[in-house]
Amino acid sequence: QVQLVESGGGLVQAGDSLRLSCKATGTTECISAMAWYRQAPGKDRELVARILDHSPVYISNFAKGRFTISGDNGEGTSYLQMSSLKPEDTAVYYCYGKQSGVDYWGQGTQVTVSS
């Protein structure tokens, strides 16, 4: 079992960059996927980017060209580099991990982009 701990959120201006980090604590064996989701007020949680073992990196259309995901599933680390941030990127960003078929979520980190 793991716990996912995010860091790196904050308040930035439009056009700025921000890097989110996620670190799994506990046993990190058999983590087959790590991803970032986000949830804006009044909206559903949506996938931002994902690294799935043995599959291409997935970046959502709204994030392509602006966000990059990196990390190592086996080590339980994931990073989301965000650039050219827009006010509509304002949301709580959640780290996600899958280990042996079980889904895990971090507590979320707030990203606020002012215009």
Describe the structure.
The protein is mainly beta and 115 residues long. The chain is 0% helix and 59% strand. It contains no helices and 11 strands. The strands form 2 sheets. Strands 2, 4, 5, 6, 9, 10 and 11 form a 7-stranded mixed sheet that branches. It is globular, with a radius of gyration of 13 Å. 31% of the residues are buried.
SSE layout:
Elements: E1 2-7, E2 10-13, E3 18-26, E4 31-39, E5 46-52, E6 58-59, E7 67-72, E8 77-82, E9 91-99, E10 102-105, E11 109-114
Parallel strand pairs: 2-11
Antiparallel strand pairs: 1-3, 3-8, 4-5, 4-9, 5-6, 7-8, 9-10, 9-11
Annotation, overall tally of beta strands: 11
Number of helices: 0
Which percent range describes the beta-strand content?
over 45%
Mean pLDDT: 96
The percent range for helix content is: under 10%
Order of helices and strands: EEEEEEEEEEE
Distance between the termini: 40 Å
Main pleated-sheet profile: 7 strands, mixed
From the alpha-carbon coordinates, what is the Rg to the nearest angstrom?
Answer: 13 Å
Overall spatial form: globular
Low-pLDDT residue spans: none
The structural class is: mainly beta
Gist of the model:
The protein has about 120 residues and is mainly beta.
